[in-house]
C-alpha cells in the first residue's frame, strides 16, 4: 500500500480531516489516513528494517522484521501482550496510523530493538553463509540489516538445512531455496502485478518454500522483476549468475530501446561490457517494473557479427547501374567510405532517385537526421520508417491525432490509464506489445474494476488478466466494430474514456478514420501505441513521405519555406514521396537508382521477398547497421552504427514524453547514424550543420515545438472521411473460408533478442487457435497437429480452442522457429486448416 502525495498550497478543512497526527520516536508527524506506520516513519527519516514490505505490493507481514512498539494506540491505551503490561511488538508494515498514536522504533525502544534482533537471528538460522559467492552479495538487504539490526555473533552451531540447488523456476529464473526468507515478494508480484500466479509458497512451518506448478512453468513476461525485488539471493538470473560482483559494476541510468513504453532502466557494465540491466525507479512511467525483454535482451549488441569498421564493395556500380557482378566487401577507412557513398548516391540520385528506409531502433535525433538528409542531400521525400503494412489514411491520422501531442498538449498519459472511466483497445495486445501499459491497466482494473474492452479476434491471456471484455472482431472489420460503439451504447465512452490504438490498426481499411469519428462523437481521447521505441520520434521528425519535421505536410508551401529557411537551403522537394512499400516496389522494378537503409532487415518488412528483390535490384545501396544482416551482405557501402549503449540520444515514448539517455560505453569503432549521414552529406556538398546528438537536438528545438504545443497540419481530419473503405466489401470468412488473425508476441524471433537464449526459451509455445465450431468441423481435438496454409506456404502446429470471432483463426506472427507471417502469410490472409493427427 502506498501513501498519497503530500498536499501543497492551501489546505481545506476537508483535506485536514483526511490526515492524522501521530508521534514516532518523539517526533510529531501528520500523514494521510490509512498510511502504514512504516511509511509514516520514512517521512521523518526513520528507516525501519524490512524484507517483505514493498511500496507497490499489498502488505503481508510475512518476515516480521519491522517490529515496533506502540506505546499509545490512539485511544489512550498501549498495545500490550495479553494479560501483561509488557508492550507487544507490532509489524509496522501492516499497522495503519491512528490519531494520537505513539510509536517507538528500534531507535528509541529496547523492546523493539531486541525483537528485531531476535527475528533476524531466527531468519539466519538456516540461511547459508555463502555471501562471497552469492550474486546478491554487496547489495543485499539481509547482509546490511544483519549488521545494522542483528546480533554480532551467532548462537546457532548445528548444521543448517540444505536443498539441491538451483531449482529452475524457468529457463531464466533460478531458485536457491535455502537462501529464501519467505518474504513472499516474488509470489505477491506474480499474482498481484503480473497476474501470473505460477509460483506460490507451498508446505508449512520449517518446510515452507517457493514452489512451482508441476504442469505450468513460470513463463511470465515479467519474471525478472522477482529477481530484482528479492531481498536475498534466493532468486537469480541464469544469464548473470556468478558473472560479476555488484561492487565491480558501473551503473548508468538509461531508457529501454525495445518498445514504445519509454521505461527507465539501469545498465550495469564492467570493462566495456554490459553485464545486466535492471529496472529504474520512475513513478510516472514504469514505476519499478520492466518486461523480461527490456531486462534480458541486450546481448544482440555484443555478438560476433557486430560490425566494427566500414566496408565498401570492390567494383560497386557508382552510377546507378545493375548490381549484377558486384565484387566482395572489403574493409575501408571512414573517409573513403564517406567519399564512395557520396559518389554512389549522387549517381543514383541522377539515375532515378534514392529511397530512404529507416527502422524502429533509431533515436529521435537519428530520425531527424534521416529526414533532413533525404530532403537536403538527396532531394527526395521518398522516406518511410514503417516496416509494416499500412493504409493511406494512416498519415492523416498520425498528423491529426499524434504529432506534437506531447505532455504539454493534454495527451493520454500513464496517469490517465489509472483515472480513466473506460478504456477501449483497438488492434492492441498490451501484454505482448507494450508491457508497461499492460501492467498499469491491470493495476487499475484490479484496484477499481476499470471497464476495459478489446476490439480483437479473441480473449487473449492478457485481456483475461485485466478482467477485460472482448468485442469479437474479424481482421479487417475493426471499422464496423468501432462505428457500432458510437450507437449501440454497450460501452460507456465520454470525455473520461480512452481509445488505445495499436499500430496494427493501420492495416485495417477505414479503422483509423473510425477511431477519429468515435473520438469526435463521444469525446474519448485517443492514444496511438506503436510497437517500437523509435516510431513516435520518427513521426514527430518527419520520417514519412508526406510529413515534414514538426508534423506539417509536405504539400504545405509555407511549411516548406519555413523549414528551408531554418535549414539554410533554397527549397525543398514539393510533392509527397513514396511510402515504404512503394519505395521497395520502385527499387525492385529498377525505377530507383539507390537505397539508404538504416536498421531495417527484410524480415522486418511486410513483404520480405519484395524487400530482397528491391535490395538486389537497386543500383546502389548504403546500409547503416549494428550487426551483419541480409542488407549489409548485399549493400555497396556498409557503415557500422552504434547501439544505444554506445551513444547518447532521445526516444519519444507513446505518450509523447521525451526520454533522454546518455552514453553508457565508449566504443570508437561505430558512430551514431546521424554522424554517418552528416559525413556523407558533407561529401555530397550539402552539409547538414551538425555532428553530435546534442547539436541535432538543439536544431530540433528550433525547428519545431517538442512540448506538445499543437500546430495546424493542413491535412484533412480523418474523422470527416467516409468509411466506405470499411463497408460493402466482402471479407475472408463470409464464404466459409478462414481469415488469419495474428500479431507478434513479446518474445519472438526478432534480432534484438539474439544472444538472450535463456529468455527465448521462456517464449510461449506456438499454437493455432480456432473456435469450437471450426475445431469440430476439422474433426480434431485440442493438442492435435494441424496444417495452416496461406498465400506463402504452410506450417504444422498444435491446435487449441478460444472464443474466436466466426471465420477466424489465430496464430503467432513471429514465434521462434515458427514465423507464421513468413511461412504462411500476413494477418488478414485467407487461410485453410487441414489435418488433426495427434
Per CATH, the architecture of the largest domain is 3-Layer(aba) Sandwich
- The CATH top-level class label of the largest domain: Alpha Beta
Number of helices: 26
- What does the average pLDDT come to? 88
User: What is the oligomer described by this structure?
Assistant: single chain
Overall body shape: globular
How would you write the strand order of the largest sheet? 15-14-25-24-23-16-17
Number of strand elements: 33
Please indicate the percent range of residues in DSSP E strands (runs of 2 or more): 15-25%
Q: Which structural class should the secondary elements be placed in?
A: alpha/beta
The CATH topology of the largest domain is what?
Answer: Rossmann fold
Straight-line N-to-C gap: 49 Å
In total, the number of domains comes to 5
Q: Whole-number radius of gyration?
A: 29 Å
Largest sheet: 7 strands, mixed
Describe the structure.
Helix content is 27%, strand content 18%. The protein folds into five domains: 13-123, Roll (Ubiquitin-like (UB roll)), CATH 3.10.20.740; 157-302, Alpha-Beta Plaits (2-Layer Sandwich), CATH 3.30.70; 311-385 and 537-703, Rossmann fold; 393-533, Dimethylsulfoxide Reductase, domain 2 (3-Layer(aba) Sandwich); 732-837, Barwin-like endoglucanases (Beta Barrel). The chain is an alpha/beta fold. Helix 9 (364-377) packs parallel to helix 22 (673-683). The chain has a seven-stranded mixed sheet with strand order 15-14-25-24-23-16-17, with helices on both faces. The model is unreliable at 1-14, 318-324 and 707-732 (pLDDT under 50). Strand 30 (785-790) and strand 31 (793-801) form a beta hairpin.
